[in-house]
Amino acid sequence: MMQKTRNAPPPFSDMRETRAMRGFLTTRDEPGLAELATRQHGVVSLAQLQAAGLSADAVGRRVKRGLLHRIHRGVYAVGHRRIGARGHLWAAVLAVPGSVLSHRSAAAAWDLCPTPSGRLDVTTQGGARSTKAIRVHRTTNLEATTQEDGLPTTTIARTLQDLAATETQHRLQRLTARAEHLRLLDTTTLTSPTDKRGAPRLEAALEAIKANGAEVTRSELEERFLELVAREALPRPGVNQTIEGYEVDFVWRAQRLIVETDGAETHLTHRAFETDRARDAVLVSGGWRVVRFTWRQVTDGSAAETLRRLLA
Question: What is the pLDDT of residues 100-109, one digit of tens each?
């Protein structure tokens, strides 16, 4: 069952792109085709082109002239291949008629995580097959909605239920917390996942939110650090809490330990260098130990042993 929702990213509305598309897509039968392509973040399907009055030969001529670029079978980018992440999500559902985005691809559409770099996931009640670029799931009960720009996805509840069977416990908990933070999560609509393996994971993720609230990180590096903590089975820290008047990235209060994760784009400027040292001095004078880890130390795991010793 499809339903409308307003809790979704706003539609793309670059009117310059619309005017550029109008010159070679608009037909007498469908003057709004350029606007459709814009709403779909630069992609259209062959069926949409034909419904607008373009014959197969007309589509072929535009492909040869570089006005249309094949993304999937029966799906084209308009004008150029440089479609964004949401354009690729649109292309996936257009390539499988009757499908909706699901699993991690739906999570990306809901802004719970970045768009996956590998195959995109769609779910359908039909008989389509997976390809190298699209993983097709089949269901007899399609719980779906459409976002503001018309992009069809599984509902937020169904998205989390599907992910409960495939994601790690830590990852599922972070996605669930993000949904709660965005006020997308209605626990009354969450039922046990179709795949029963995910039921305990989903229940644990919801319990973590009740216990700790929807702790939200501010960067990919902070997310990576929390993954490191979970992978190494270390005590879970408080996230973005205020200590001595400063908001710190991570804190273990019992051990009087603070960890800051330093991304090069924000911590290598002269001003940031001076500010970091000033706040470290205040925290240390208050009896806290302050440790800073770089992106490399977090992502290659070398921070784990240092952290383990500090928490011992």
Answer: 999 999 999 9
